[in-house]
Design goal:
Helix content is about 45%, strand content about 20%. It is α+β, with helices and mostly antiparallel strands and about 900 residues long.
Length: about 900
């Protein structure tokens, strides 16, 4: 078995090796690039030296030309020259005196005056050389041919920059003036100061180089001349006139590179050479110092790196070991741990990400546990209800007496009678379910239906009106109809579960049940009997409908005061009252605040889909299995699609809305918008169609419970479960906003939670594009939605955007964590007034332990000014992601 080396030891060794390699690489790279840079710098210095040499040479020529032209413009000089032939020696002496005088004034190093044939009339560097013939000098020849010339002048082992200009009087050539500057060490020093390179200027002395100016020392110049002669460089440059761009030299143990260029006179003949030199050692010196520093620092770094890596193995890798242990524990289902590492490096970010993952897993586990525990209170698969906590609660009770089944006529077919009863019971169930009513039980031909929550009395009256209308209609020529007797009473009843057979059953007991029994006995077929307290609660509805009832004294049930109405009156009352009294989950339409608009057309609350009940097959395709729920627009059924052999949710419009083009267009819009959204937290929409004259939408069927049910069962949710639902709601909403869709009706009823804890946003029935609506959809000045969840700008009929949805999210979050709503009211209008004029109560008023960041998030969503809310759902989601259970 191979020995195992710990991770810390491997880091220890690898760190030392890497630092060693890094230092070595740095030294090698510095050496290579140092040589390269030094070579480049030296070459640049040589090029500068050559350029400076040429520039200075040209400058000296121009200066000499200027001096000579000034000199020859002297009338005295021209007069002396003109009379030199007549005066003889006396004339040349005068010219010499004048030259010497002007030489001191003008600063040239020598001057010669020649006659037109090139014979010397006077010269400052050799006063006794009068009469000498210089006509063969290249500079003089050039001047005789072109009247003016510049070039080099060699005299007595010295080299000069010289110029020759004509002397004329009255346009008659009288001779030439030759003047020059000596090329000496001072000129060489000037080149070095400007270019940074050393210079040696050589003259050709009988085939051997003669140094006339240099910046080098005697020993260096002597060694340089030896190199040039040994390597035939003098012959190459001075005799052949070829330049040598880069020559490697070794002078006094130092490395140099040189640039050799020939010097030529006016005729092109080589008179010498210019040698420019740059020291490589001088250029490399800074890099050699860097190498030395690198070696010293590198050695220390290697030592420190080994020490540091040892400490790193002991300290830094301890959190990694902790993370490994925590990961192993998490793989066994233990998500309760938390890694505490107060660092911002990769290890800290890894720990933060791991804690984030553990938090997600904890929240998922908590949500699944919460749903699992809650599911124990749901109806079981065998049809028995789970145990329900006993309690007293206000309810409206609707009694339905199907008297046609009390005494079946002789000769009736039993099977047909039971089938008819089953059909009537399905109709009653559908009508009650559309109003969130619950059938508590049946007693022979009598049914008891309870309504709880807001507007329970009106919902009971609406259900009674529909049941009376449906069960009073004849469905065939052989159908002998006997209308039912209906009665409604409101009061405090005791509800709960009892076990007396195979499982628990829900029961309702109390005095309201006894009084309801008396009311049913008071009515005749087709009557709807209501109690005096209930009539008082609905007095506003009756007044708006124009229906006035006279109180009656009952004969049964304690001779209580009651009111009796017929089916037509009930339909009139519920049709007129729908605009002012709504169910908690039904959309409400109101005129925008401050517009002075007339009240909108009433929205009829009662449904007329009682014909569609479990067991019915519509369109030879959809088999109704159960009613899933109802809203302001229609009823949702669980159906089996026989064509696809799949379970789907089928949403159908209420019968009294089928002729409303606006609502039909909205139903189409729901499909067009919702089909764009594909996200795990959004309920999929499949198809839109028309069956048996009824418009429908098919949607993904999800087995789960709504957030409203969760809240109704437990009040506020556990913190971890609430956070998870909040983030899922925002993810689904962000997906909708990304494709340009506003939901406009976000509320707990429209968030369904699956058994695995995944939440889906559903019911885009009144959604519209973020951009302008098409013709036929909700018109300007109309507000659609549930008042408790509408943003102020939405209530005022102003243009809205994503921030209106985020207001509704804020209300839902408020409910999730506090079990309260931010704005209170006994009816929708009071809620609207509170929303427009009041600030929301701080959530921590209801939950003291609420984290402050969560409260700030909720209050930001509930800012009355849209500009102070989150701009996008993704921004809200980002802040929620920062919160962890």
């Amino acid at each position: 078995m191979r020995p195992r080396i710990s991770f810390g030891v491997r880091v220890f060794l690898m760190t030392g090796l890497l630092v060693t390699l890094a230092v070595g690489a740095a030294v090698v790279v510095t050496y290579i690039y140092g040589n390269r840079i030094a070579q480049q710098t030296a070459r640049q210095a040589l090029q500068r030296a050559s350029s400076v040499q040429s520039a200075l040479q040209q400058q000296r020529f121009e200066q000499l030309r200027l001096i000579a032209n000034v000199f020859v413009s002297d009338d005295d000089l021209r007069a002396y020259i003109a009379g030199a032939a007549d005066q003889g020696v006396l004339g040349t002496a005068s010219i010499l005196d004048l030259l010497e005088e002007r030489q001191n004034d003008l600063g040239f190093d020598f001057a010669i005056v020649l006659d037109p044939q090139g014979r010397v009339l006077a010269r400052t560097d050799a006063p006794d050389a009068v009469g000498g013939d210089l006509s063969q000098r290249p500079l003089v020849k050039a001047a005789q041919q072109e009247l003016e010339a510049t070039g080099f002048w060699k005299q007595d082992k010295r080299l000069f920059n010289a110029v020759a200009v004509p002397l004329a009087a009255d346009q008659i050539l009288q001779g030439f003036l030759v003047a020059g500057f000596a090329i000496d060490n001072e000129a060489a020093d000037q080149v070095r100061k400007i270019s940074g390179a050393d210079v040696a200027i050589l003259a050709d002395e009988g085939g051997r180089p003669l140094v006339v100016a240099t910046t080098l020392g005697p020993s260096e110049i002597e060694e340089l001349l030896g190199h040039l002669q040994r390597r035939n460089m003098v012959e190459t440059v001075m005799k052949r006139g070829e330049s040598m761009e880069q020559v490697d030299l070794d002078l006094q143990g130092r490395r140099w590179i040189g640039l050799l260029r020939p010097l030529a006179d006016a005729s092109g003949a080589r008179v010498g050479a210019v040698v420019s030199l740059a020291s490589l050692d001088a250029e490399l010196l800074p890099f050699e110092r860097i190498e030395t520093i690198l070696l010293g620092v590198g050695g220390g770094a290697i030592l420190l790196a080994l020490i540091f890596s040892f400490l790193l193995g002991r300290k830094v890798f301890k959190p990694i070991r902790d993370l490994a242990a925590a990961a192993a524990a998490a793989s066994q289902g233990n998500y309760s741990q938390k890694i505490k590492i107060g660092r911002g490096d990769e290890v800290g970010r890894l720990a933060e990400a791991f804690n984030h993952l553990l938090s997600e897993l904890r929240e998922k586990q908590d949500m699944e546990t919460y749903i699992s525990e809650l599911s124990r209170t749901l109806p079981s698969q065998n049809g028995h209800a789970a145990m329900e906590t006993a309690g007293t609660r206000p309810v409206a009770l609707l009694g339905v007496d199907l008297r046609r089944y009390a005494q079946p006529k002789i000769g009736y077919d039993p099977e047909a009678t039971i089938e008819q009863l089953a059909q009537d019971l399905r109709r009653v169930h559908a009508a009650a379910g559309a109003r969130q009513g619950q059938i508590e039980g049946s007693f022979g031909q009598r049914l008891l239906i309870s309504f709880a929550g807001e507007n329970r009395a009106f919902r009971a009256l609406s259900a009674a009106a529909e049941i009376g209308a449906v069960l009073s209609a004849s469905h065939s020529a052989f159908d002998e109809v006997e209308p039912p007797v209906l009665a409604i009473i409101e009061g405090e009843a005791v509800t709960g579960s009892v076990v007396w057979g195979e499982g628990p059953e829900r029961v309702v007991v109390g005095r309201p049940l006894q009084l309801l029994e008396g009311l049913l006995r008071e009515g005749a077929p087709g009557d709807l009997v209501i109690s005096q307290p209930l009539y008082g609660n609905l007095g506003e509805v009756f007044t708006k409908s124009g229906v006035e009832l006279a109180p009656q004294r009952g004969m049964f049930g304690g001779a209580q005061t009651l009111y009796v109405i017929n089916g037509a009156m009930a339909t009139k009352v519920t049709g007129a009252g729908g605009a002012s009294v709504q169910t908690a989950d039904a959309p409400t339409r109101v005129a925008p605040a401050g517009t002075g608009a007339a009240p909108p057309r009433p929205v009829r609350e009662h449904a007329t889909l009682a014909e569609i009940a479990p067991g019915k097959v519509i369109g030879d395709r959809f088999e109704i299995l159960s009613t899933l729920g109802a809203g302001g627009m229609g009823i949702v059924y669980k159906v089996r699609d026989r064509e696809l052999d799949d379970l789907v949710a089928l949403k159908m419009l209420k019968r009294d809305l089928w002729g409303d083009r606006e609502l039909l267009e909205r139903l189409k819009s729901e499909l067009k918008l919702a089909r764009k959204i594909t996200h795990p937290n959004v309920l999929r929409t499949f198809d839109f169609g028309d069956v048996d004259g009824i418009p429908f939408i098919t949607m993904e069927y999800v087995r789960g419970i709504t957030l409203r049910y969760l809240l109704s069962q437990t009040g506020s949710l556990p913190y971890s479960a609430g956070l998870r639902l909040a983030r899922q709601l925002c993810r689904g909403l962000a997906a909708a906003h990304e494709v340009g869709v506003l939901h406009r009706d976000i509320k707990p009823e429209n968030l369904i939670v699956q058994p695995n804890g995944n939440a889906k946003l559903m019911d885009f029935g009144i959604a519209r594009p973020i951009t302008r609506m098409d013709e036929g959809q909700t018109q300007a000045g109309t507000v659609v939605g549930t008042p408790q969840y509408l943003a102020p700008e939405q209530l005022q009929g102003k243009p809205i955007d994503e921030r209106a949805d985020l207001w509704a999210v804020g209300v839902v979050l408020y409910e999730i964590f506090t079990s309260q709503t931010p704005f209170k009211g006994d009816n929708p209008m009071q809620v609207i007034v509170a929303t427009l004029n009041e600030q929301p109560t701080p959530p921590r008023t209801y939950w003291k332990q609420m984290p402050e960041p969560l409260e700030q998030i909720i209050l930001k969503c509930l800012s009355r000014d849209p500009g102070r809310r989150y701009r996008h759902a993704s921004a809200l989601l980002a802040d929620l992601e920062e919160l962890r259970a």
